What we know:
0% of the residues lie in helices and 76% in strands. By secondary structure, the protein is an all-beta fold. Strand 5 and strand 6 (86-101) form a beta hairpin. The radius of gyration is 22 Å and the shape is elongated. Pfam families: Autotransporter.
Amino acid sequence: MLNTNNIDIDDTLANTKTTGAYAGIFSKYDLEDFYLLGSFRMGYEHTKLNRNVNIGAFSANYNSKFNSYLISEMVGIGKSFNHYGVSYGPLAYIEHSFLHHFAINEENQNSTALNIDSKNFHALNSFMGFNVNYEKGMSDKAIVNFYFLGGWNHYFLDSLKNNASFKDASLNKFYTKSKLSNQDSLYLQGEIDFTHN
């Protein structure tokens, strides 16, 4: 799968453009009373970052390009009930994600341009929710499938800490640290599929 994202941060502070290629496998194993599921995904991303700094009379623009690769593994368990053609039930899974970004060197020759060290990040995501699936035959060859998944996510993150230095002061390292204000989120997903044989 190929994907492109274009994200503005606070309108004028920064912009990122990321192009990535991803591949993965998914497996579901049905048992008598419940089912098990698992997945493995990996990807490679190329990001262009543009940021602006405006402090009093000082103004500068910085550009950088860097690559990243990511891996995630997921295992889960669920239970399905059927009622008049509708399949529904609870679902829970745990997903581990790994991201490595290579060193980032801003292209601006200004001494305030940043050099950011390469870094590994880990995250663990837990999900508990409910899914509903309904399949309806429109004709002998046409089938419409409706799917809904909703639930609660909780993220267990590492420190999200980056080591960096200014271009003209590479020996004087400092770090930036990010923190999510809320590690819980509501997740909703809906799909409609049409199949014709």
